[in-house]
Write a structure and sequence with these properties.
heterodimer; A: two-stranded antiparallel ribbon; B: Helix Hairpins; about 75% helix
């Protein structure tokens, strides 16, 4: 139990240490301190996972949900209290592994990558805070606890995206990320309140039990009460999903994700692979039993949003030229995959394949996406540009990066026997079983994924640029062991993670789910992916006019996609033109003229009256006496006249 | 020689207004105190006069006068104490100089 508590508290201690005393720590010592703490945290997670999955987790072949530690924090009533606790179940243990591993890799990588930064220690303290928040989030045993850590994740991502705070674009991006996710969190909070009010508890275990038991009074209450024609339960779950969609950058709340690339590259790796964006998927998975058993309508919403995001992001990714943005859209697309995979799952046995597939994809995605970002970091460091047009022919300059990047691209494209193949096959199978429409859109997205990833790959490592101006001091090209070790380790994971019999460990109901690869079924997706890769190879392996011609032939459609379907502009139009002008300005006018005005008038009147009365109170006794005598005289005269 | 009530009232009214005049015009606090004493005494005269001429068989007016004399003595004591204090503070017993309660 102590070791469990240490997993999140070690990064937190590092955050405090580096936050308070970071300036006194010389050189890159703070990076090493943070990394060692992360390593300890990772090792503790590994022992926890080993213990849970192989020794203590199972009872009668079913993984149990264990609340390992819990203290009441805020007690509202007998039933309703906010507890702080640690919850162990297959997905939280799996997430512990993913988060600590990716975070460890990012920490080690950053030791070298961020070298020479003025705020070196601050960077590591933020990284640790980020990791702490995410670990707290996945271990939460209470719906409100998850919300607290959820917001902490938001804050630390804000700090990290805006790390280069003297760069206006970074400041803008961090504000955008914070405001958009915060806006979504409003939905989450309302959803929490609805669920907590309806189920009369905030505790996950009790909440899920009550809301999945069809004879419980709480569930009946929530299903029978409606608002705007939709049951309260659906409202609550949908609102919670909006919060998850905001953090996971699902359409239409995805606009912050590409801009978040303004942060340092290791941060992008952390955000995209392990923390932040998968939080939404995790949240949906956490509440999956409730959705699947009591409210499948919400799962349809999840499917729609996930599918739309996956397809849209894949299309946009084909047109972008900033390599980190391409990766950002690919993340959005893959997260969309995880989302709709959860959406197509239903309760019980093989029907819940989508759940396992989603978690599996989350697991494998963490490896190859972290690898892609860290590799992109090396490339950017080498070229000093994010733009695809400034790169090319780098395979000889950066051999190790090239190789690991290739493996990651193959993995994300779903080429066997790399990890992405297995998880993607499961997702496709689950969607085939659910609905053919979902399947074909997913298939299309998968082909596009292969295309844009290899467009990126060939663009960076093959096609020669117009001007070559890379620095040629060989030894420091790829940054040495500290940079390459994380790449190689993640590369191993990305290549081999697929062979883990994931269904045995993670499934919706805890019982082992037997999954196998159906090669006849996998034929079409792999073929399509290969086709995508070949197309990319033809178009981008050598510098040519071909891509330009093709994009020109698409005309307006290309422009729409290149400008990301003008979603940002739509938001700007809505906020600036409609909200600011039609609501903000009149409200400001009323505030200035009516609210402030009435206060000002009162104050002015009081001042004028006081100004007039002040001379009367001169302090001269005889003046007072004059008034007194004169007053009496007047009274006497009045009384006399009266008679 | 016979003095009528009428004459006495005129006398006391004159005395009262001399007091009022003195109180309003003099700046010296001691003089102002004396003016107040004049006013009090004119009232005393009124009491005695009414008592003697209208309710000769009673003593209420006399008692009142005695009271007023006692109170006037107390008042003079307090007032002179204040004036001494004011003098120590402002180095002046001019009423115009002591216009502020502060300090």
């Amino acid at each position: 139990m102590t070791s469990l508590l240490l997993i999140p508290l070690l990064p937190f201690a590092v955050f405090l240490l580096l936050g308070f005393f970071g300036k006194k720590i010389q050189g890159n010592a703070s990076g090493w301190i943070a990394s060692v703490a992360m390593l300890a945290s990772f090792l503790l997670s590994v022992t926890t996972a080993a213990d849970y999955f192989f020794i203590s987790g199972k009872t009668d072949g079913v993984f149990q949900t264990i609340v390992a530690w819990e203290i009441p924090w805020l007690k509202f009533s007998e039933n309703l209290s906010i507890n702080m606790g640690i919850l162990l179940d297959p997905i939280s243990v799996m997430m512990l592994l993913v988060v600590t591993l990716v975070s460890l890799m990012v920490h080690v990588y950053s030791i070298k990558y961020m070298k020479g930064e003025e705020r070196y220690s601050v960077f590591f303290s933020y990284l640790s805070l980020f990791t702490f928040s995410m670990l707290g989030l996945v271990m939460s045993s209470n719906l409100f606890q998850i919300y607290i850590f959820w917001e902490l994740v938001g804050v630390s991502s804000f700090l990290l995206i805006g790390f280069y705070y003297d760069k206006p674009s970074a400041v803008k991006a961090s504000k955008k990320a914070f405001i958009v996710t915060r806006f979504a969190d409003l939905g989450f909070l309302i959803g929490i309140l609805i669920l907590a009010f309806g189920a009369d508890t905030l505790d996950f275990h009790t909440l899920i039990n009550r809301l999945t038991d069809s004879s419980s009074s709480q569930l009946n209450g929530m299903v029978t009460t409606g608002f705007l024609g939709v049951s309260v339960l659906t409202w609550g779950l949908s609102l919670v999903f909006i919060g998850g969609a905001g953090k996971s950058a699902m359409f239409p709340l995805h606009i912050w994700l590409p801009d978040a690339m303004e942060g340092p590259t290791p941060v992008s790796a952390l955000i995209h692979a392990a923390t932040m964006v998968v939080a939404g998927v995790y949240l949906v998975a956490r509440l999956f039993p409730v959705m699947a058993l009591s409210c499948p309508a919400v799962l349809d919403l999840v499917t729609t949003v996930g599918l739309l995001s996956a397809a849209m992001a894949a299309v946009i990714a084909c047109t972008q030229t900033d390599i980190k943005r391409i990766l950002a859209y690919s993340t959005m697309s893959q997260i969309g995959y995880m989302m709709f995979s959860l959406g197509v799952a239903r309760w019980g046995g093989d029907l819940s394949l989508g759940y396992t597939a989603s978690m599996f994809h989350l697991f494998t995605h963490a490896f190859f996406k972290a690898l892609l970002f860290l590799g992109a970091g090396v490339v950017i460091h080498h070229v000093h540009s994010n733009e695809l047009k400034d790169m090319g022919g780098l395979r000889k300059h950066l051999p190790v990066t090239h190789l690991t990047f290739l493996i990651a691209c193959l993995a994300i494209a779903g080429i066997p026997p790399l990890s992405g193949f297995f998880s993607k096959e499961e997702i496709l199978l689950a969607s085939w079983n659910h609905s053919k429409v979902v399947y074909f859109i997913a298939l299309f997205t998968s082909a596009l994924t292969a295309f844009y990833m290899f467009r990126l790959y060939f663009g960076i490592f093959f096609a020669s640029p117009h001007v070559v101006k890379y620095h040629e001091n060989g030894a420091h090209r790829e940054g040495g062991a500290v940079i390459l070790l994380p790449l190689l380790l993640l590369c191993t994971g990305a290549a081999l993670a697929g062979f883990i019999p994931f269904g045995n460990y993670v499934s919706a109901d805890g019982a082992a789910l037997h999954t196998e690869v159906h090669f006849d079924f996998a034929f079409a997706p792999v073929l399509l992916s290969l086709a995508g890769i070949l197309t990319a190879m033809m178009m981008y392996k050598t510098q040519s006019e071909l891509p330009q011609k093709i994009s020109n032939s698409f005309g307006v459609a290309y422009r729409w996609v290149y400008h990301k379907f003008f979603v940002d502009e739509l938001y700007l139009f809505f906020t600036k033109k409609i909200l600011f002008k039609a609501v903000g300005r009149p409200a400001a006018w009323i505030d200035r003229k009516v609210v402030d005005g009435s206060v000002n008038i009162t104050a002015d009147a009081a001042e004028t009256i006081a100004e007039g009365m002040r001379p009367w109170q001169s302090g001269r006794v005889q003046e007072y006496a004059w008034w007194f005598v004169a007053g009496i005289a007047v009274m006497v005269i009045v009384v006399m006249c009266w008679k | 020689m016979n003095i009528t009530l009428h004459e006495i009232l005129i006398f006391s009214a004159a005395l009262f207004f001399i007091g009022v005049y003195g109180f309003l015009t003099r700046r010296n606090m001691i003089t102002m105190l004396m003016a107040v004493e004049l006013m009090l005494n004119s009232v005393n005269i009124n009491f005695i006069a009414f008592n003697k001429y209208l309710w000769n068989h009673q003593l209420d007016g006399v008692f009142f006068t005695l009271f007023i004399i006692a109170i006037a003595a107390a008042e003079a004591a307090v007032a002179i104490a204040i004036i001494i204090h004011v003098y120590r503070h402002f180095k002046s017993i001019d009423a115009e100089d002591a216009v502020e309660l502060k300090n």
